[in-house]
Amino acid sequence: MDSPALGAVALLLAGFWHLGLTATNYNCDGALVSTLPSSAFTSSSDFFSTHSPSFAKLNRRDGAGGWSPLDSNEQQWLQVDLGDRVEIVGVATQGRYGSSDWVTSYTLMFSDTGRNWKQYRKDDTVWVFTGNSNADSVVHHKLLHSMKARFLRFIPLKWNVGGHIGLRVEVFGCSYKSDIADFDGRSSLLYRFNQKLMSTFKDVVSLKFKSMQEDGVLFHGEGQRGDYITLELQKGKSVVILWAWGSKGLFHTSITLGSLLDDQHWHSVLIERFNKQVNFTVDKHTQHFRTKGDSDHLDIDYELSFGGIPVPGKPGTFQRKNFHGCIENLYYNGVNIIDLAKRRKPQIYTGNVTFSCSEPQIVPITFVSSSRSYLLLPGTPQIDGLSVSFQFRTWNKDGLLLSTELSENSGSLLVYLHGGRLTLLIQKMAEDPVEISEGCPDNFTDSQCLNPITAFQGCMRLIFIDNQPKDLILVQQGSLGNFSDLHIDLCDIKDRCLPNYCEHGGKCSQSWTTFYCDCNDTSYTGATCHNSIYEQSCEAYRHQGKTSDFFYIDSDGSGPLGPLRVFCNITEDKIWTAVQHNNTGLTRVQGAGPEKPYTMSFNYNSSSEQLEAVINSAEYCEQEAAYHCKKSRLLNTPNGIPFAWWVGRANEKHLYWGGSLPGIQQCACGLEESCLDMRYFCNCDADREEWTNDTGLLAFKDHLPVTQIVITDTNRSNSEAAWKIGPLRCYGDRQFWNAASFNTEASYLHFPTFHAEVSADISFFFKTTSLSGVFLENLGMKDFIRVEIRSPKEITFSIDVGNGPTEATVQSPTPLNDNQWHYVRAERNLKQTSLQVDNLPKKVLEAPAEGHFRLQLNSQLFVGGTASRQKGFLGCIRSLHLNGQKLDLEERAKMTPGVKPGCPGHCSSYGNLCHNGGKCVEKYNGYSCDCTGSAYEGPYCKEEVSALFEAGTSITYIFQEPYPVTKNTSTSSSAIYADAIMSKENIAFSFLTAHAPSLLLYINTYFHEYLAVILSKNGSLQVRYKLSKDGLLIFTIDSGNFANREMHRVKINREGRELIIQVFIKLKHNFSEIDFKAIKSLTLGKVTDSLTMDPEVSKANAYGFTGCMSSVWYNHIAPLKAALRHPSIAPVTVKGSLTESSCSSLTEADVNTATTIYSSSDPFGKTDEREPLTNAVRSDSAVIGGVIAVVIFIIFCIIAIMSRFLYQHKQAHRSSQTKEKEYPENLESSFKADTDLQNTVSECKREYFI
């Protein structure tokens, strides 16, 4: 956060030390300390003169054998002045000779001036070096990246617990030569080219700089036509590079990179441009981008300026501040600019530039703790006023900066940040001393140091009190003021948003201790916007119980690909994924030839990588390709040059058409040998005057999707065509059910190393009966990652990134080794480690703010076991994803002993997803719900089957007689039917109507008994039994008017003598005796046969039923579903108007009229394929054709009649074939088989069609 200034309070931001490359001088490993004089060593303190820092050279035994401070604490340090800036590549340490004093860990700080120190970092973390384990052994460390500095400090962190701090050191490296120029904010360097106008295709600019100013131009070049290139500091925390080309106006490309660069430390910049491609590097952060504009070269003037813009009035030049600071090793296209300036070369103009870096001796301080840090400084009592100024920087929006008591007991003054704004507060108080403090000391009372927000965390420098600068080194030495938990002579601020660890476009913000990610508008969630909010496939949505609809899918989960909007067509058989493009309709083409081809490119509103991910994840994909033609050739078969083609993946041209195979220049009719003209392999290639077509499916996945179509033969007389490329359609998720079975504890699968340095997510399903086992493990030198089941109720995710193991454990209330599928998701990022198991509460552990954070793994990834082959996993693992990438367990299991591909038994876990009597059917890749035994349909047998009835509508389901009387003429019919007594009824249905009276359901027997469900005139519901012994039994539900245009669900269950009727309320009745014999038929709506009915039923039957009825069920029979789905093979008769509809979507008008026709259309608006050219293609010769049509009308009529006859015959044949394919062989027989009532009574497992 940038904080505004108050009075003399100035804005300041600090930054990182530039982590340079390892020394390129191969001989840069010389000892730098051994030859230094004693005066080169200083320290925070020394125990005695014999323990002074001058004795701290490696392997020396003089004095007390090394340096030891007066007190052993973390505020001590040993400093070495190397005499000049050198390149440091390594260090070595020993303890104090012959003692128990040695350092076990330490950090390093470096500086050019002995002030304003910088900590040595690795991976953006202050690096802690391992020290010694005894007094005399030498521990060497080679630096990962070299340091360029004159001063080096060793900061002991820990030491031998039985002794004190003791240290001897050596530093390794070599001399460092550089060319430096000092700019005072008014000076600059000008470099003139040899030629007047310079046009470049390639530019390379490299330099290092240090500055205390937040703004300043480092480099600028400008052309006469408006082109320019500028490198500058802006607002103290960024480097911005601006490019412009002027051939067609001015195009700006502005890139910001780097942060906190005005901290008076060296930072490196490298700009590499080749044509429009630019690599821009600040310190270790690089950004690649392309410049805008239409020209590859850069036209700049005959001179470049460094450190500023010397002629502000120059045309096209904008006002910018000159650079104030030092620039080192400035190169432009290999030319050493500073070296030329130092040697006074004529092409260089030097404007008030010096060649040594003059640096002010500024001492910053860091307030580390939010509760204990403070600096207490003495003020000067004055009656007439108070003057305090300082510079500060922080990321926190709140914090107390200053508090002081005003003289003469006039009150207190507070300066603090609140919501990022500076606030001055003066409060009346009655205290004598005048003290000024930054932060808030612990020994102050609440009234003395009022902190309305929180303590300050950040850096300060240049503190002036009453116009007098305060020497903070004196504070450090204890001779001025007081302090607690400060880092003096160091600004230890860190930009936690550089680099931005918020993924997928998440916006980063930060405080002193951590960073935050705003994931709004990213389609991702989590602490670092790592996790997609969408599923990876339509199969995953179906697994959640979703029905057909538009969804977003994210094929690579947490990977770089974004979500894609698709239509998931979730059917009982397959789950289709459809991706629409910008033109799926039938499109007419005329006037296209080889010189002027017709081209259409397809836009799927997605990247090619997204589409490829969808296709690669599917088992099968297709796109329909249709070409309707009249005198327009397609592929010009058999051997000609094609007149049309399509372009697929990777911009590859393809010369085969739908229904054919790759590499074969044919259409579907060519493979089937059914083309209109057998001399050609496409119907359109016959070049006929009448309309024909070539239509088929493109199904070779590696060539899909279709990205472009080209047509070149519609420019001849009477030549035209119409084409259609359908949406991309795929089914089958190759990963969701991808599984492996581990049969022995020593068996495992191995994969390449899991690379997930900053963020990692692991997800999978498992099922097992074992007590424990390791699901997954990957090891590094010290780091590791592991997921395991430690006990039947405990899953653990373990990880170590160098700070010690972290374990997240989820405890389940029930055993997880129940041979059911369970879901596990483990995630680790810079902020959190988390573990989710099924729907149990997620276990989340916060990551430390400092320390190691990169996960370094180098072994193979073991799945189902470990490298030691111990604690292996017994059971199944499926759908394993690592950072969104899918691991093919089945393919690897095929070649691994002890592991089998696939895992049976899905229905044991997911059978409960099949509702309403649907049965789970086991499949190799998953399961399906068989709705044959249900009144419902759909993927989960949850979709209602409903229809609109009119007054005369009747559906009658006929039951066969239990025994034909002719089978045994010696037996009386009553004896035959005595064995077929119906012991129960299980009836359920829903209805909606506005009419009463109405007859809903009627069941009659061969003995003239019946069961009727009616609505009486007042809207009450009646269930009426007509029995031979008990006579007429009437059960009335009069809890309201059921003809109220609302849906009502009716359930009637009779088991033996007990009857239960349930609508809103439950009604129970016990029969004295019931013989409901030999069911003959069941009727929904109006009964059209002459049957015996009591007057109330007859009155209701006269009106029939007008309304909507759905999901009708009677003892394993679904008569309404049979009538709507299979009327030709089910024993059902439909009379009157019956229109399929959704009862839940009806309006009041629909209920009253019951005549509205409802239809379901494809979401992509497919046209009727029977007449593809009705609206899309209209011949220009329609008028002339009309005259001719009068003459040949009779001929056409004859042809039409003959064609119709042949067509009906062909369709009848196809229909019979389709039915044979669609239904099992015993389906029709299941309706015609003996449906005698004895089987119904005994609850046999025979399944009747419903």
UniProtKB/TrEMBL annotation:
<keyword id="KW-1133">Transmembrane helix</keyword>
<feature type="domain" description="Fibrinogen C-terminal">
    <location>
        <begin position="529"/>
        <end position="581"/>
    </location>
</feature>
<dbReference type="InterPro" id="IPR050372">
    <property type="entry name" value="Neurexin-related_CASP"/>
</dbReference>
<feature type="domain" description="Laminin G">
    <location>
        <begin position="964"/>
        <end position="1143"/>
    </location>
</feature>
<dbReference type="InterPro" id="IPR001791">
    <property type="entry name" value="Laminin_G"/>
</dbReference>
<feature type="disulfide bond">
    <location>
        <begin position="876"/>
        <end position="903"/>
    </location>
</feature>
<protein>
    <submittedName>
        <fullName>Contactin associated protein family member 5</fullName>
    </submittedName>
</protein>
<feature type="transmembrane region" description="Helical">
    <location>
        <begin position="1182"/>
        <end position="1207"/>
    </location>
</feature>
<feature type="domain" description="F5/8 type C">
    <location>
        <begin position="23"/>
        <end position="174"/>
    </location>
</feature>
<keyword id="KW-0812">Transmembrane</keyword>
<dbReference type="InterPro" id="IPR000742">
    <property type="entry name" value="EGF"/>
</dbReference>
<dbReference type="InterPro" id="IPR008979">
    <property type="entry name" value="Galactose-bd-like_sf"/>
</dbReference>
<dbReference type="InterPro" id="IPR000421">
    <property type="entry name" value="FA58C"/>
</dbReference>
<keyword id="KW-1015">Disulfide bond</keyword>
<dbReference type="InterPro" id="IPR002181">
    <property type="entry name" value="Fibrinogen_a/b/g_C_dom"/>
</dbReference>
<feature type="domain" description="Laminin G">
    <location>
        <begin position="180"/>
        <end position="357"/>
    </location>
</feature>
<feature type="domain" description="EGF-like">
    <location>
        <begin position="904"/>
        <end position="942"/>
    </location>
</feature>
<dbReference type="InterPro" id="IPR036056">
    <property type="entry name" value="Fibrinogen-like_C"/>
</dbReference>
<keyword id="KW-0472">Membrane</keyword>
<feature type="signal peptide">
    <location>
        <begin position="1"/>
        <end position="22"/>
    </location>
</feature>
<comment type="function">
    <text>May play a role in the correct development and proper functioning of the peripheral and central nervous system and be involved in cell adhesion and intercellular communication.</text>
</comment>
<dbReference type="Pfam" id="PF00754">
    <property type="entry name" value="F5_F8_type_C"/>
</dbReference>
<keyword id="KW-0677">Repeat</keyword>
<comment type="similarity">
    <text>Belongs to the neurexin family.</text>
</comment>
<dbReference type="GO" id="GO:0016020">
    <property type="term" value="C:membrane"/>
</dbReference>
<feature type="domain" description="EGF-like">
    <location>
        <begin position="493"/>
        <end position="530"/>
    </location>
</feature>
<dbReference type="InterPro" id="IPR013320">
    <property type="entry name" value="ConA-like_dom_sf"/>
</dbReference>
<keyword id="KW-0732">Signal</keyword>
<dbReference type="Pfam" id="PF02210">
    <property type="entry name" value="Laminin_G_2"/>
</dbReference>
<keyword id="KW-0245">EGF-like domain</keyword>
<feature type="domain" description="Laminin G">
    <location>
        <begin position="738"/>
        <end position="903"/>
    </location>
</feature>
